[in-house]
Amino acid sequence: AATCPRQVTTTHGDVAPEPDGSAGLLQVALQGTSHRAVGTVQGSTPVLRELNGATFKQPAPLAGPLLVYRAKASEPSTLPTLVGLLGKAGIQLQSYHSSGTVAGEQWSVVGLSATLSDLSELKPRVLEVFPLQL
Questions:
Q1: pTM (2 decimals)?
Q2: Per-residue pLDDT tens digits for 9-65
Q3: How many domains are contained in the chain?
Q4: Mean pLDDT of 99-128
Q5: Is residue 7 part of a domain?
Q6: Which of 11, 24, 102, 108 is most buried, taking the most CB atoms under 10 A from its CB?
Q7: What percent of the chain has pLDDT over 90?
Q8: 10 in a domain, yes or no?
């Protein structure tokens, strides 16, 4: 079953400037969801710093096709399953960022060379998954 990429709306201002003063707070609204995402802009690229209270140690760039998923931190087979799906589809994994654990769950943001449309094998291993096209 194909999954339609969600639309992303961003707004930004200077309410939480970076220490060097080069970036401000970025609020990201994912259409059709109630997720709260917070980030900044590095250069000209928006980056995700927090998703629903889970903080990313390394900000995740919000560019190109992405796959965002939430899984139990104790579920070791999620990433190997995703890598296998990408191999079958001929899609390259270009970046991987995971959040800290909150209530035993962890968010991951995966940069891809193309949109992965068939998420059926991944869905049993995650609590939530959605593609983003930026």
A1: 0.78
A2: 555 444 444 444 444 666 666 666 678 888 888 888 889 999 999 999 999 998 999
A3: 1
A4: 94
A5: no
A6: 108
A7: 56
A8: no
- Give the amino acid at 123: K
Owning domain of residue 127: 23-133
Q: What is the CATH number of the domain that holds 83?
A: 3.30.70.260
CA gap 26, 72 in Å, rounded: 27
Distances (CA, A) of 83 to 10, 17, 55, 117: 29, 36, 24, 14
Residue 28: the pLDDT is: 60
Determine contact, residues 100/50, Cβ cutoff 8 Å. no
- In terms of Cα–Cα distance, which of 119, 104, 99, 8 is closest to 52? 99
Other Cβ atoms closer than 10 A to 103: 9
Are the CB atoms for 75 and 125 separated by under 8 Å?
Answer: yes
Residue 134: Cβ-neighbour burial (10 angstroms; 0-12, 13-18, 19+): middle
Q: How many CB atoms lie within 10 A of CB 18?
A: 13
Asked whether the CA dihedral 6, 36, 106, 123 is positive or negative, the reply is negative
| Residue 110 placed within a domain | yes
